[in-house]
């Protein structure tokens, strides 16, 4: 260590090799034993930060000391998203090949803002997005870009939709312009909050996101959409964009995209499809119909970091109108001009961020390691697991499924005899969920459907087997018995 005090360079290669191997071994051991560790940490707010010093070290520390604190300080507060008993929100996987691809991209540390700043980053991104597009059954007319998250993808879709109006908003802004109509965005009452956040960010205003009612299976009602657009036009408002969802966040319902596309074509509105979760299922040939009608969308987002085993973050955004997106965002300062500008794609032209990580590597590793058939088998497997749980829920005298199960996510609740819909039943299910999660062996989350509190079970981790799913369901049933015994 004395030697290091005078050294002004990076970690020496030998040391990097030693600790790199050690860390990879640590990760491999972690995965091998993950089944025997709790999925949920047992910490209270502040527990982790109070084990950390107030100031950064003045003098460098050894890697031994740093790595020791992973087990001592960090792991006790880690919610294990890569755990086979993680069923909350959407269950995801940072797969082995994905982790290695991410590691390599960090090591190369390129900034793919321009083709020139790393030709491989730009060209691999183009190629893997074309591979993915074909796997999903989308037409070649879709052009792709990688953003960090679906929320950011949807924000870019809304920005392009607004640019398409040709109302000079890019140059003149929206404030203080009496001639500018109120701009309206339509989405279902089941849509993800990112649609609203995009509208807030872009200055449409929260109130101008019109929530179209959904039907009994939580799908947007196209006739209600058509009516809302008609009513808005009658008031002099300007409809801009419709966001349909393939796999909504609460129930994973699928909006009727073909009917919605018909309305958007007739009304000349931008159609954006949010397939953040459900879109990935289209890699399974017999599931490809979930994207029916999406070939008519102006843009679509799918998150490989949700159900295609790519480590977070990776969101694939496709549009048939890249030139509109470019018009919305391209701004080239002198120091970013290159001789190749007319022959290449410079991804910085298609979004708000300049610097871009080499994310394509991790998708490339994942697509090549598993192959299209390997990915399809895994997604099929998750859907089969979900069907077995659905059957158990339906066979149980007290439990009920609260929504159809088009993918691998279930919404259910307990409905004890004599308890009717209402706050008592909601509170009972909330207590049930809390008691199940307090075991720390499994992790479920919840949502509310038409005011009713329901428990959500999302199956999507590569390590999850029938054994994990059975065990998780048994814990719910057992916890229910204990709670109703105490009632
Ligand atoms: C998860 C999800 C999102 C948000 O995804 P991020 O990548 O975290 O922004 C958006 N829409 C739907 C339907 C989702 O399920």
How would you explain this protein's 3D organization?
The chain has helices spanning 2-5, 13-33, 63-74, 96-108, 119-135, 150-164, 169-172, 193-201, 222-234, 257-267, 304-307, 322-329, 360-395, 423-438, 466-485, and strands at residues 143-147, 183-188, 209-212, 238-245, 270-275, 299-302, 315-319, 399-401, 409-414, 445-449, 452-458. Helices cover 42% and strands 12% of the residues. It is globular and about 65 Å long. The strands form two sheets. It has a seven-stranded mixed sheet with strand order 1-7-6-5-4-2-3, sandwiched between helices. A four-stranded antiparallel sheet has the order 8-9-11-10. The chain is of the alpha/beta class. The model has no long low-confidence stretch (mean pLDDT 96). The protein has two domains: 111-357, Type I PLP-dependent aspartate aminotransferase-like (Major domain) (Aspartate Aminotransferase, domain 2, 3-Layer(aba) Sandwich), CATH 3.40.640.10; 367-485, Aspartate Aminotransferase, domain 1 (Alpha-Beta Complex), CATH 3.90.1150.170. The N and C termini lie far apart (62 Å). The chain has 15 helices and eleven strands. The structure holds pyridoxal-5'-phosphate.
């Amino acid at each position: 260590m004395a030697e290091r005090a005078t050294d002004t360079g990076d970690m020496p290669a030998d040391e990097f090799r030693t600790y790199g191997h050690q860390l990879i071994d640590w990760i491999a051991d972690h995965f091998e034993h993950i089944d025997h560790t709790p999925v949920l940490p047992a910490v209270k707010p502040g527990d982790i930060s109070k084990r950390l010093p107030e100031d950064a070290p003045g003098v460098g520390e050894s890697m031994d000391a740093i790595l020791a604190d992973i087990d001592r300080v960090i792991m006790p507060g880690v919610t294990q998203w890569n755990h086979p008993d993680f069923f909350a929100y959407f269950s995801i996987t940072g797969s082995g090949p994905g982790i290695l691809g991410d590691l390599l991209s960090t090591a190369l540390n390129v900034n793919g803002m321009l083709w020139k700043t790393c030709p491989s980053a730009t060209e691999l991104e183009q190629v893997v997005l074309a591979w993915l597009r074909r796997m999903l059954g989308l037409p070649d007319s879709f052009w792709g870009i990688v953003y960090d998250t679906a929320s950011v993808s949807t924000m870019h879709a809304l920005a392009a939709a607004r640019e398409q109006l040709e109302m000079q908003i890019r140059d003149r802004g929206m404030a203080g312009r009496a001639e500018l109509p109120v701009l309206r965005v339509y989405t279902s009452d089941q849509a993800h909050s990112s649609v609203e956040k995009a509208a807030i960010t872009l200055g449409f205003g929260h109130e101008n996101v019109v929530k179209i009612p959904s039907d009994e299976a939580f799908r947007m009602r196209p006739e209600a959409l058509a009516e809302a657009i008609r009513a808005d036009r009658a008031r002099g408002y300007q409809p801009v964009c419709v966001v349909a969802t393939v796999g909504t966040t609460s129930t994973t319902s699928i909006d009727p995209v073909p009917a919605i596309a018909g309305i958007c074509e007739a009304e000349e509105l931008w159609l954006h499809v949010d397939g953040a979760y459900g879109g990935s299922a289209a890699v399974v040939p017999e599931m490809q119909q979930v994207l029916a009608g999406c070939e008519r969308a102006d843009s679509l987002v799918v998150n490989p970091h949700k159900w295609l085993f790519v480590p977070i973050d990776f969101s694939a955004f496709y549009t048939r109108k890249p030139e509109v997106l470019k018009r919305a965002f391209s701004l080239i300062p002198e120091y970013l001009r290159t001789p190749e500008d007319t022959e290449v794609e410079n991804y910085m032209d298609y979004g708000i961020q300049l610097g871009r990580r080499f994310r394509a590597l991790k998708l490339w590793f994942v697509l090549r390691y598993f192959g299209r058939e390997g990915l399809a088998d895994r997604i099929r497997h998750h859907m089969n697991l979900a069907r077995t749980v659905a059957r158990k829920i339906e066979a149980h005298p007290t439990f009920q499924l609260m929504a159809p199960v088009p993918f691998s996510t279930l919404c259910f609740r307990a409905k004890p005899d004599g308890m009717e819909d209402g706050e008592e039943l909601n509170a009972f299910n909330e207590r049930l969920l809390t008691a199940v999660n307090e075991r720390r062996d499994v992790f479920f989350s919840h949502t509310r459907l038409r005011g009713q509190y329901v428990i959500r079970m999302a199956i999507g981790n590569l390590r999850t087997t029938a054994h994990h799913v059975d065990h998780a369901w048994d814990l719910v049933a057992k916890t229910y018995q204990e709670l109703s015994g105490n009632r």
